[in-house]
Design goal:
Elements (H helix, E strand, L loop, with lengths): L2 H4 L4 H33 L6 H21 L5 H5 L2 E5 L7 H16 L3 H4 L10 H6 L1 E5 L10
Antiparallel strand pairs: 1-2
Length: 149
């Protein structure tokens, strides 16, 4: 087994990290989305159309993920679960890879999780958006040779 394959994060750990990430995103979205829109409504009595609200959420979440992935390869949830995003050659991903991964993760999740189910059939158990963007999620601290962490 290759050294890279030995420290790839498992599906359960990545899914648990995603669940925790969704809880953290509630806080991020409440500060960066809800509060400004509540203020717009209360102060200027403006309600933006739904399409602009969706674009705002897309941009806020994109900014959050891409910024954290670009600055260390880990979001807050990934730090907790000791996960790290890297390129397939174990180097930091390029900005193009990060943007592509973020864009591809939307259909991967919204099409009934098809991109996540892909991991059940992928040779390295990678999600489809990782496979297509040339990234992978690894353990932030690879297991020691004696099996103890």
């Amino acid at each position: 087994m290759s050294e890279t394959a030995q420290h790839l994060a498992g599906i359960r750990r990545r899914l648990a990290g995603m669940l925790y990430e969704s809880l953290l995103l509630l806080g991020v979205l409440s500060v960066s989305f809800m509060l400004p829109h509540i203020a717009l409504g209360m102060i200027w009595e403006i309600v933006l159309p739904g399409s602009l609200l969706v674009i705002h959420v897309f941009l806020v979440m994109g900014g959050y993920f891409i910024w954290y992935w670009h600055h260390g390869g880990q979001t807050l949830a990934m730090q907790t679960w000791k996960l790290k995003l890297v390129s397939t050659n174990d180097t930091p991903p390029t900005l193009n890879q990060l943007f592509l991964r973020y864009l591809l993760s939307w259909p991967s999740l919204l099409l009934y999780g098809a991109g996540l189910l892909w991991a059940l059939f992928d040779r390295d158990r990678q999600f489809l958006h990782d496979r297509l963007s040339g990234t992978r999620i690894i353990h932030a601290q690879p297991p020691s040779p004696n099996g103890c962490n």
